[in-house]
Predict the 3D structure of the following.
Amino acid sequence: MKMTGEELVYLGVLAATIPVGFLFRYLSPPVKQVTALLLGLSITIALCHIHTLHSLVTVIGTWIIIKSSWRLAPALSLSWSFLYLLFFRLVTNFDLPKPTPFANAVQLLLTLKMVSLANEVHSFHVEKKRDVSSFAKSPVIGGLSQEPSLYDILSYSYCYVGIMTGPFFRFQTYMDWLKQPRPLALPGWEPCLHRVKMVPVFGALFLAVNHYFPLSYVRTDEFLDENIFFRLFYMVAVFFVFRMRFYAAWCGAEAGCISAGLGCYPEKALSKPGGGPTVDYSPDPTIEERYDFRTIQNIDCYNTDFCVKVRHGMRYWNMTVQWWLHHYIYPNAPFKSYALRAGWTMLISAYWHGLHAGYYLSFLTIPLCIAAESAMESAVRAKLGPSGQNIFDWIHWFLKMRAYDYMCMGFVLLKASDTINYWTSIYFTMHVIAVGCIIVGKVLKGGRREGRRGEKEQTSEGGKTEDVKEKNGQKTE
C-alpha cells in the first residue's frame, strides 16, 4: 500500500501550503504579491528544473498577444496555449528532454489561467470603450479595473496557491486576494478544518482499495480468465480508488486556498466555482458579513456520488475547470445542438488532459450517455407518476455511476489497446445500454407523438423549468 514518490511530493506540497497560507494573511498587498510569486517560482523550479522554461515561454507569449491585440487576444491566446501544449507533449520528438509530471501539472493549470486572463483583458477594454461612449460606468461584475502589467501576469501565473494541484481561479480573484482590506478578520481555521477532516478517510480508503484492486491486474491475461461479474465489479473498484485519490487531493488544495483567504467573498456575492462573484456586492459595516469559499471549490464529494444524471456529475467534479470549459469553450463551439456542443467541449477537455487515446475514448462517451438519459427522461420518466419517477431516478443513478466506472477505465488505462481490451471483456456494456436507451426513447416518443401535443408541450415546459433551476445553481437531485 505504498504511495509513489510523485504522490508523496504532491502530498508534501499540499500539506505545507496550509500553514503557510495563514502567514500570508499578515502581509501587506505588495509583500504578499512578491512573496507568493517567489514561493511559487521556487516550487516550480525545484520540481520542474529546466522545464520551467515551458511555462515561462507560455506566459511571455500570452503577454505579447495581449499587448499586441486585445481584440483578438481570446482566440489567439487559446490557439497559442493549446498549440504550445501540443509542442510540450511532443518535445521528445525534437530531441528535447521529457518534462517531469510536475511540469505537466504546472503547464495544465497555466494554460487555463492564460486563456482566462486574455478574456478578462478583452472584457476590460470592451467595457472601457462602452463607458467612454455612454458616459456611464458599466455594471460588469468582477471586471478588471486596469490592464495587468507583465509583473502582475507573472505573479498570477506563478502564485504558489494551487501551482500544481489547482483549483483554477481567475486573475480578478487573485487581485481581490491581494487587496483584501482585513484578511485576518476573514474566516480561516473553521472552514479549513471542515475541508480537511475527511482527507485522512479518503486517503486510507484510496490506499486500502488500491492494494486489493490494483489497476495493473486489468492488463494481465489472468484478469481475462475471471468471470464477467468480477470484471464488471473491477471497474467499480477502480473508479472508487480514482475518486478517493482526487477527493483527498482537491480537498487538501482547497484547504490551502482557504488558509490564505483566496476566493473568500461574502455569501451575498453568490460566487461560482472558478468564476467568483456573480452579483454586485459592497461591504455593509453595520452588519456582520457571512463569507464562503465557493470560488475555489473544486469538488462536491456528496453530489458527485449521489446526483442522478451524467451531466450533473460533471458539474460537481473538477468544478473550477468545468466553469472554464463552460465559459470559454462551450459557447464558441462550431455547432448549435446541445449534443454536438457537449461533444466538442469533451474533445477539448480530452486534449487538455493529454494525447492518450483513453482520454478521448472516455470523454467522447459522455455525449452518448447524455443523449441516452435525455431520451429516456422525455420518453419514459415524463409519463410516470411520483412513485414511478422515484424508481426511475434510482435506476438512473445506478446506471450513471456504472457509466462513470466504465469511462474511468479509459482515463486510467490511457492506451487505446488496453481500454478496448477491457471494454471488450465486458462486451461494451455501457455503450450497448446507452445506444439501447436512445433507440427505446425514440421509438416510445415517436409512437406517442400523434394526439399528444399538449402533453409534449407540458414536458417541454418542465424541461425548461429544470434548465432554469440548473442555471440558477439549484440542486435538482
